[in-house]
Design goal:
Elements: H1 3-12, H2 17-33, H3 44-72, H4 80-114, E1 122-126, E2 131-138, E3 142-146, E4 152-156, H5 159-162, E5 164-167
Antiparallel strand pairs: 1-2, 1-5, 2-3, 3-4
Helix pairs in contact: 2-3
């Protein structure tokens, strides 16, 4: 018999065992969660991790107490792992389904922060299909472009981070301006 078996056999002797176990857990979480004044100055990292650790310990104690109370009441928890696995699977599927929307929203925050282009700029997205247009609007999910033929395109914001983006200088009329790029001479032949 190990330690947990001794505790559960002690708790089961009393009719109020499950309530006593939950009350002890609540008292323990109260002691864990109460505010303590440190003796010295805590580092910034320690001051940020303390609340997280406190919450983790608190929820661990509460979970163990609930499982202990259910076991002491004689409730079979063999199916608990199946239910937990099913719930975690549903949460994971939900995160995957939301990933594309969250990706677009994060990309829009990055577009606003780093400003690779602004409303009114002419941009070109180089990829399988060439997309050229003037930026006429931005939202959390899409950036709206007006093409030279007047049609309106809604481009997902994360596409600007997946493809090469060319921003034309204001006032440029050509969709593909010729730019002369001189490569540096790495052979040393043109040394003077």
């Amino acid at each position: 018999m190990d330690f947990t078996d001794h505790i559960f056999s002690f708790v089961q002797r009393f009719e109020t065992g499950p309530l006593a176990l939950l009350a002890a857990a609540m008292f323990a979480t109260f002691l864990i969660a109460r505010e303590r004044r440190p003796k010295g100055n805590l580092s910034l990292r320690a001051s940020r991790t303390r609340p997280l650790l406190t919450k983790m310990v608190k929820w661990s104690v509460v979970s163990i107490a609930i499982i202990g109370a259910l076991l002491s009441l004689g409730i079979d928890l063999r199916g608990l792992w199946s239910v937990l696995a099913a719930m975690l699977s549903l949460v994971a599927i939900g995160f995957v389904a939301m990933w594309s929307i969250l990706s677009h929203m994060l990309a829009s925050v990055l577009l606003v922060t780093f400003r690779p282009f602004q409303i009114g700029d002419k941009v070109e997205i180089v990829g399988d299909d060439l997309v050229v247009g003037k930026v006429i609007g931005m939202s959390l999910v899409y950036t709206t472009l007006r093409t030279s033929d007047g049609s309106v395109l809604r481009i997902p914001n994360n596409l600007f981070f997946q493809k090469v983006l060319k921003r034309f200088q204001p006032g440029s009329l050509d969709a593909s301006p010729a730019v002369a790029i001189q490569e540096p001479d790495l052979t040393g032949a043109n040394t003077q």
